[in-house]
Amino acid sequence: MAEDERLESHDSGMVLVAIPGRLTATLERTPADQAWCRLRGDVDWAAVEALRPALEEVIDSGVSPLVVDLRAVEFFDSSGLNLLLTLRTRAESAGLALELASLSPAVTRVFEITGAGAIFVIREPARPNDSQGRT
């Protein structure tokens, strides 16, 4: 499916993925040419299957950084972590950056267990206009 067929207007950006009752992913481009993807809901195997091509397409567009806002993620498992690791590798291979913002408790738990937080840039607090707050 082409990008313009998948994307539709949404109050806080363009909807990349919508799985009713489970997950919504929206994308907002900032004036500083960053892309902020906000995930809301469950990031499990089924969601990852829908998210992967949409987020790969954003990375392939050359925008940098792509910031993934995880504050509204209610469930996050190893498939979600694998997606973020794969996207990070894809971005770095293209000379681009993938950053994370505002990890929810579900995401924080997986990152604490695996130590994955050590390899990502994590922004706090998560605001598209925030040029500070990197940790």
UniProtKB/TrEMBL annotation:
SUPFAM superfamilies, per database record: SpoIIaa-like
Top-level lineage group: Bacteria
Gene3D superfamilies assigned: STAS domain
PROSITE patterns recorded: STAS
Positions of the STAS domain: 38-115
InterPro entries: Anti-sigma_ant (IPR003658), MlaB-like_STAS (IPR058548), STAS_dom (IPR002645), STAS_dom_sf (IPR036513)
Coiled-coil regions listed in the entry: none
Family, similarity comment: Belongs to the anti-sigma-factor antagonist family.
Protein name in UniProt: Anti-sigma factor antagonist
